[in-house]
Design a protein that fits this description.
The complex is a heterodimer of chains A (881) and B (112).
Chain A (H helix, E strand, L loop, with lengths): L2 H27 L2 H23 L10 E6 H4 L9 E7 L5 H17 L4 E7 H4 L7 H6 L4 E5 L1 H37 L18 H18 L12 H25 L8 H9 L12 H25 L7 H9 L7 E4 L2 E4 L2 H6 L1 H14 L2 E2 L1 H11 L9 H13 L3 H10 L2 H5 L20 H13 L19 H12 L3 H10 L11 H16 L3 H12 L3 H8 L5 H11 L2 H16 L8 H20 L16 H4 L9 H8 L4 H6 L2 H12 L6 E8 L2 E9 L4 H11 L2 E10 L4 E10 L3 H4 L3 H13 L5 H8 L15 E5 L7 E8 L4 H11 L3 E10 L2 E9 L7 H16 L1
Helix pairs in contact in A: 1-2, 2-4, 2-9, 7-8, 8-11, 9-11, 10-11, 14-16, 14-17, 16-21, 17-19, 19-21, 19-26, 20-27, 21-23, 21-26, 22-23, 25-27, 26-27, 32-34, 32-35, 32-36, 36-37
Chain B lengths: L1 E7 L4 H10 L6 E7 L6 E5 L2 E5 L2 E10 L1 H15 L7 E7 L17
Antiparallel strand pairs in B: 1-5, 1-6, 2-5, 3-4
Helix pairs in contact in B: 1-2
The chains are: A alpha+beta (881), B alpha+beta (112).
Chain lengths: 881, 112
């Protein structure tokens, strides 16, 4: 072996031996930081030896040239298979040609040692420029370290040129670094809760830790014109926690590099098992399962992620523009309980949180409503309050009132994540604890179970139309025509809070020992809903959503949704349009939250088409799906009879129900049906029975009577005369000809709100009109206020469409137009005047759009074509007048 | 080796995949596609608007199998994807010269 071979071999042997010793040391101690330090020292030895061989035996020569370490190597944080970044710095470009051979020699020897090298050759002046398209180079200089060569040249870069660059371009540096960080976070769904996280790049990973250092260093250089320990600028209460997290990640990344023998940083399921079994990051292996070990990972990643977000926010250069004004404006959100400063909420009287749990919930309402951050002080106050929660439980009505608001506000997912992180969610709902940071290994799911649940809520809120930051999170996915249609049905839900509640808890069963996770989720929900004191009908809706949450997805994947039989069968399981809307939205949110690619536009279209086909089926199959005479053992009367007087006779209940569309049973509670039966029983005493009640901002009128001409028109006319705007109506008839019409209306002039006694007079007017004791025209001329009619805000052309195929004995009329007072009276009058009998009516108002479906007969038959033409002409004429 | 491309109804995918697995075909590439052949589109009315599907959703399966598995694969797909209605899809076969497994350089049938 010649002399050249000897030194190469010596160098190679030295590096191999050092690497082996370092790895053995890690195997026995698990100390990741020691690995980083030792490998950096070993590479230093190799690089400086090469430098002395190729440049000068004197390490501080030649003049006007030096070799620097950048990035991780510059920080002395070389992981076992990390790249080694080198900068060959020259005074000016004239120096470079003469150094080329020596530089190439060093690089060749390093490659021969199988080291992965990233190198660049720059002049001092080039290092003082901002590279907007290569920010990585500017950032790498934040960690530069002298290795060999002209110390004076290095000192000029370190003490003069680079600090000047930062002083001049710190805003650009900060902005670009912040943009790059946010883009990287977005790529990972803005969450740390990945089932198989990349511990370097994912939010809360090592890259974020370094972003925190870089931000602090930029700030130090800008403000103090000096280099210092960047951690000194971090908030003191975060330093220890983030330092521990860094140590954990370093040990884990070293373990991954040694295990895979390359720079692969994904913590796969297999690696999680091995890391746990080996007690990596100094965790006691025997005490942990892989899921527990991952919980420790998430806790550490969360610390780093929160510091990163905090520093990105507070380090932002003062902006005098719109954003600055906006931030100032946000401080006006302060109220008697909370103050808002630079997007952070502070509790005015922290001690009051422990005394008043309602205040605690209002704090998170504030987060959910405005997307604000909790200040560190507020978090400490919450933690303190949780240790002193009063023994008396919260009043369920107050409790659910606040929690409902949190679910409905646009930043609900953020508030829920904060509540979960601080332990408030588990305090309110211990059932949720079983899925906290829970990893369930699954090929498709990318997030932990709790994060998946939060993401469903986030994705559903993001469906809403584009909003400003103050109004809600932007939709991160690509909006499509189908998502716009789903957004429309979201805006129509009567009780969206039930859907959000179902989403939050739909997978808690995955953390329970129940054989089937749906069964577990239902058990948990039953207890939760009892504590929230939800009405029975609402509990049934939430139970339905949980029990069916995989139904629509399964139908999409395994059935031909263009086959009418598939639609009929699916509709049979859903029963009502409201449930269909909720289940469609739940399915959308659930699939979209599995991973960012799970819900393709292809699947979204299939989902919407199944929704539309089923919705159409539900509206057009009412006379096919009727309550039939049934064996006593399965009679729907079974649920009604216990609510009636002991004297009630089953056959009479059966007789009342027979012939009603089955939807009647699905859309009314047993209590409501019992009331309707009792009203129907009194028809012998008074031929018109009416019940009027208030439902939130709406009123609901139920009329039961025998069928007669102009019945529907007379009721709608009376309501119009009283200034009531009908938003929903359903008209059914049973086999005996008993008509049951239900109207939900808005009291435009607050007549009933201001004068409760007027309710009786309204009912009395109605009975008189229907009994022929009062003329409707006279009532209308005295009360209707045409001058108050406003022009529609949007143009909706009136459309009339007939369908002779959906029903065996009725013609379906679908009418779409814009809403206006008295509309339903106008339509039903036209129909009555042309001799059309309304068998079934489904009236719906969505915003300013009215969508009405009437099942019509004329002389007990479908409408002949000429009558259809006459109805269309008369309706369009009336509606366009 | 033969490359098999099958365009099938989405609802038949699970059954086709299981049948192929049963005869020893484990690997396949699956694409969500749209297209049309003789099957006409589909129209749905929703709130006064007409939504026409000109290109129907289908699943496309692509796989390369040894020659001896080509015909059994075709039969497995035929058996499970057929409903007898227009729109059941099509199967295409082409000859493949070679295959290489990137991980370990294996070639030919061994790479499948």
């Amino acid at each position: 072996m010649n002399e050249t071979g000897d030194w190469k071999l010596e160098l190679s042997d030295y590096y191999s031996a050092e690497s082996l010793t370092t790895q053995r040391s890690f195997d026995s101690t698990g100390d990741g930081l020691a690995v980083l330090r030792r490998r950096s020292e070993a590479v230093d030895v190799v690089v400086t030896k090469l430098y002395s061989r190729f440049f000068s035996p004197q390490l501080d020569e030649p003049q006007n040239f030096c070799l620097l370490a950048l990035g991780g190597y510059g920080r002395r944080e070389l992981f076992p298979h990390s790249d080694i970044d080198l900068l060959f710095l020259t005074e000016n470009s004239r120096e470079q040609p003469s150094r080329r051979d020596a530089v190439a020699g060093i690089l060749r020897e390093l490659w021969d040692l199988r080291l992965r090298i990233g190198h660049s050759v720059h002049t001092l002046a080039e290092c003082g420029r901002l590279y907007r398209d290569n920010l990585e180079f500017n950032v790498a200089l934040l960690d530069c370290r002298y290795l060999a060569g002209d110390r004076g040249l290095y000192a000029r870069l370190h003490d003069d040129v680079f600090p000047h660059l930062v002083a001049r371009d710190h805003q650009d540096l900060f902005r670009n670094l912040a943009d790059m960080t946010r883009q990287r976070h977005a790529k990972y769904g803005d969450t740390i809760f990945h089932l198989e996280p990349d511990i370097k790049e994912a939010p809360g990973g090592l890259r974020d830790f370094h972003v925190c250092r870089w931000l602090a260093r930029i700030s130090q250089l800008e403000k103090r014109k000096a280099w210092g320990a960047p951690e000194d600028l971090w908030p003191a209460h975060w330093r220890a926690e983030v330092g521990t997290a860094f140590e954990f990640l370093c040990a884990t990344r070293c373990f991954l590099h040694y295990l895979r023998e390359r720079d692969d940083n994904q913590l796969s399921y297999e690696c999680q098992d091995q890391a746990c079994a080996r007690g990596i990051a100094r965790q006691p292996a025997a005490l942990l399962t892989a899921a527990d070990w991952m919980r420790i990972y998430f806790r550490n990643a969360r610390s780093i992620y929160r510091l990163t977000k905090h520093l990105l926010e507070v380090s932002a250069p003062a902006r005098a523009g719109v954003y600055g004004l906006f931030q100032n404006w946000r401080s006006r959100l302060s109220n008697a309980d909370f103050s808002v400063l630079r997007e952070n909420i502070y509790v005015r009287q922290p001690a009051a949180l422990a005394q008043d749990p309602a205040l605690l919930l209002r704090l998170f309402e504030m987060v959910a409503r405005h997307g604000l951050e909790l200040s560190r002080d507020a978090e400490r106050a919450v933690a303190e309050a949780l240790t002193r929660v009063p023994a008396t439980p919260l009043d369920p009505s107050v409790f659910f009132g606040s929690f409902r608001q949190i679910l409905l506000f646009p930043w609900a997912a953020k508030a829920l994540r904060d509540m979960n992180r601080l332990g408030v969610l588990s305090a309110l709902f211990p059932e949720f604890q079983v899925i906290d940071s829970l990893v369930i290994r699954d090929f498709f799911h990318r997030y932990t179970v709790d994060e998946h649940s939060f993401m469903t809520i986030q994705n559903l809120h993001a469906l809403a139309p584009p909003r400003s930051r103050s109004q809600g999170p932007a939709n991160s996915g690509v909006g499509s025509e189908w998502e716009d249609l789903l957004a429309e049905i979201l805006s129509e839900l009567e009780k969206p809070e039930l859907l959000y509640l179902a989403l939050l808890f739909h997978d808690v069963g995955k953390g329970m020992e129940a054989p089937d996770h749906i069964e577990g989720s239902l058990q948990a929900l039953d207890e939760i809903m009892a504590r929230l004191d939800l009405a029975a009908v609402d509990r049934a809706t939430v139970r339905f959503l949980i029990a069916s949450h995989l139904e629509m997805s399964a139908t999409l994947q395994r059935r031909d949704i263009f086959d009418p039989e598939t639609v009929r069968e699916f509709a049979g399981k859903i029963e009502t349009p409201e449930r269909l809307k909720m289940l469609s939205l739940l399915t959308y949110a659930d699939i979209k939250s599995v991973n960012p690619e799970a819900l393709t536009p292809w699947k979204t279209e299939l989902l919407w088409r199944l929704y539309a086909a089923t919705e159409n089926y539900l509206a057009r199959s009412l006379d096919k799906e009727r309550v039939k005479p049934v064996a006593a053992t399965v009679s729907p009367a079974d649920k009604i009879l216990p609510l009636l007087a002991p004297s009630a006779i089953r056959e009479e209940v059966d007789s009342f129900l027979e012939g009603f569309p089955r939807r009647y049973l699905a859309t009314h509670s047993p209590q409501e049906i019992a009331l309707h039966f009792q009203l129907a029983q009194r028809l012998g005493q008074e031929a018109v029975q009416a019940d009027l009640r208030t439902l939130g901002s709406l009123h609901e009128l139920t009329v039961i009577t025998l069928d007669r001409p102009f019945l529907f028109a007379s009721i709608t006319g009376t309501l119009a005369a009283w200034g009531m705007s009908i938003v929903k109506a359903v008209a059914f008839a049973d086999a005996a000809g008993v008509v049951l019409d239900t109207f939900r209306f808005v009291d435009l002039y607050h007549t009933l709100d201001l004068n409760p006694s007027e309710a009786d007079r309204l009912k009395s007017n109605l009975v008189d009109v229907l009994q022929g004791r009062m003329e409707l025209s006279k009532l209308m001329s005295g009360r209707i206020r045409p001058g108050s009619v406003q022009k529609p805000k949007v143009t909706i052309p009136s459309q009339v469409r007939f369908d002779d195929t959906s029903s065996s004995h009725s013609t379906l009329l679908e009418l779409i137009t814009y809403d206006r007072p008295g509309l339903l009276y106008q339509v039903s009058s036209v129909l009555a005047e042309l001799g059309c009998n309304i068998e079934i009516a489904l009236i719906d108002t969505e915003g300013e759009k009215v969508i009405d479906v009437f099942y019509l007969t004329s002389q007990v038959r479908k409408l002949p074509p000429e009558l259809q033409g006459a109805v269309e002409k008369a309706l369009l004429s009336k509606l366009q007048a | 080796m033969k490359k098999i491309e099958a365009i099938i109804q989405p609802s038949r995918f699970d059954a086709v995949k299981d049948a192929l697995h049963d005869i020893g075909v484990d690997g396949m590439t699956v694409l969500e596609v749209r297209g049309h052949g003789r099957q006409k589109g589909h129209t749905e009315f929703y709130r006064g608007n007409e939504y026409t599907v000109d290109l129907l959703p289908k699943i496309k399966i692509e796989m390369v199998v040894p020659d001896n598995l080509a015909e059994p694969s075709v039969q497995a797909i035929l058996k499970t994807a057929k409903t007898g209605k227009i729109g059941d899809g099509k199967i295409f076969l082409t000859h493949v010269d070679d295959a290489v497994r990137i991980r370990n350089d294996e070639r030919g049938d061994a790479a499948l």
